[in-house]
Amino acid sequence: MFKKSQEENKKVLVISAGLLLENVNANKVLFGFIWEAFSPVCWKLLTSCGTQYAVMFHQFTEFRNQFCQGEITSEDFRGKMNAVVGKEIPDEKFWQIWNSMLENVPHFDEISEKFEWLKSQYAKVIVVSDTNDKQVNYLKNKKGYGPLFENASLSYEKGKLKVELLCDAITQAQKVTSEGEIVVCHGVPRGPEKERLEEVKEEFLKQLPKGIKKDNIVYVQQSGIDRVLAALSIENPALTTKLKVS
């Protein structure tokens, strides 16, 4: 058990679960659905056609959000996505493709000690997640992530997506700590989207409850527990080296 310092005990951390999951590849899902529905030639044409793929991606995002907010059931989601690609993908194969984005996520055993060290630095850590029961069960059963989701605020249970969940968590944290600080760890775009970084930060800040200090928002552009620890300026030489976050 790690010992918390008196100063650190006053702080509450609000963080998205996705920031702690390294090697998530969401692109594999839609590509996988299209691959399953079409011949390799058609798959190449579709994925290289910007307009057609953009339409599919928009529909996929809309239905995914509905599913993750609990607005539609898993069967409704599967039916809507089958309609998008124009083919009935068998149930088992469909969910195999859906969970494929998580295949390369390291097993929780590989990060458990670092996760415990992260938690030890705060009076309370509140985890929120845009997710669904299929992927939570996959991460728990196949990757051992039960401890990450213990007492987490999950979108499909709350009927809200990540920013709303973060706001609710901040409000909850404000009740827990009157003297300490609330630190919010939030993921932001990288790659081509990083040009919008400052705009994204400002948009996010406007949505947060009053009383949150701008300096207490920690932005992370690439997921992984080492990057989160580095961004939060948490260092334990026995566990990890401090990284430069790009």
Question: Which terms would index this structure?
Answer:
five-stranded parallel β-sheet; 9% strand; alpha/beta; 246 residues; Rossmann fold
Write the layout of secondary structure elements.
Blueprint: E1 12-16, H1 27-37, H2 40-48, H3 50-68, H4 74-85, H5 91-98, H6 112-120, E2 124-129, H7 133-143, H8 146-149, E3 153-154, H9 155-158, H10 162-176, E4 182-187, H11 197-207, E5 217-220, H12 225-231
Largest sheet: 5 strands, parallel
Specify the CATH class of the largest domain: Alpha Beta
- Total number of distinct structural domains: 2
Q: Which value, in Å, is the CA radius of gyration?
A: 19 Å
User: How many individual helices?
Assistant: 12
How far from one another are the termini?
32 Å
Low-confidence stretches: 239-246
Q: Estimate the helix proportion, in percent.
A: 40-55%
Order of helices and strands: EHHHHHHEHHEHHEHEH
Number of E strands: 5
What structural class do helix, strand and pairing data support?
A: alpha/beta
Give the CA-based shape.
globular
Might you state the CATH topology name of the largest domain? Answer: Rossmann fold
Q: Looking across the biggest beta sheet, what order are the strands in?
A: 3-2-1-4-5
Binned strand content: 5-15%
CATH architecture of the largest domain: 3-Layer(aba) Sandwich
* Mean pLDDT reading: 84
